[in-house]
Design goal:
Blueprint: E1 9-12, E2 17-23, E3 33-39, E4 49-50, E5 55-62, E6 65-69, E7 72-75, E8 81-84, E9 90-94, E10 100-107, H1 112-124, H2 136-145, E11 151-152, H3 165-181, H4 184-191
Antiparallel strand pairs: 1-2, 2-3, 3-10, 4-11, 5-8, 5-10, 6-7, 6-9
Helix pairs in contact: 2-3
Length: about 200
């Protein structure tokens, strides 16, 4: 395995996403991660989610990305900047006929690079459904491993996300060990190319 480097590009054919790492968390000692994110026509993020500890900043370069932030929708245009505070449910997709190009910055970086690497690898190997969502056991392992970086918000695409938060935590606590037992923990380690984890910020 190797650490993701600036200039490397990864793709997810299911969601029609392409991400190029511009500045990695290792380069900034965990302060931030900056990527260029490209959606092809019809591209989408798999599900609404939130980042418990991170500020996510979008700078639109091209195209017409549409955002749903805390239940409210808006279409952004080139030159727009969208900033999402920690703990705010959000999702976004390509609402236009052409590619969208957006610069995204996560502060702090945490292990967000690993999430991109893992989910895109799962997509390339068709281990996700047509919405790019993993099965419950794999999803529980991901949720437990990357709870500091991202959590799925209530969404119509994933029935389990509409359960009360405490019940979701209970289910993740039950399903994640079963997922690791059948090998999903090792699968995540194999898909993450990072030799060392980005330092965590308290």
């Amino acid at each position: 395995m190797h650490v993701a480097r600036a200039g490397e590009t990864i793709e997810n054919p299911i969601t029609r996403e392409r991400v190029t790492f511009l500045v990695t968390g290792q380069e900034t000692n965990g302060a931030f991660l900056r990527v260029e994110h490209v959606f092809g026509q019809g591209g989408f993020v798999p599900a609404a989610h939130l980042h418990p500890q991170q500020v996510e900043r979008f700078e639109v370069i091209a195209g017409s990305p549409r955002f749903r932030i805390d239940g409210e929708e808006r279409t952004a245009r080139p030159g727009d900047v969208v900033t999402i505070a920690p703990g705010t449910p959000h999702t976004w997709w390509n609402a236009g006929d052409n590619e969208t190009r957006v610069l995204i910055e996560f502060r702090p970086a945490l292990r967000t690079e690993e999430i991109f690497e893992i989910l895109f690898a799962l997509g390339r190997e068709r281990r996700l459904n047509k919405r790019s969502v993993p099965n419950p056991l794999l999803g529980a392992v991901l949720a437990q491993e990357y709870a500091q970086e991202a959590r799925v918000a209530p969404t119509k695409e994933i029935l389990l996300t509409r359960l009360p938060p405490f019940l979701i935590r209970v289910l993740v606590g039950i399903l994640a060990p079963l997922g690791r037992l059948v090998g999903y923990g090792e699968l995540l380690r194999r898909y993450s190319r990072r030799a060392e984890r980005t330092p965590r910020c308290s």
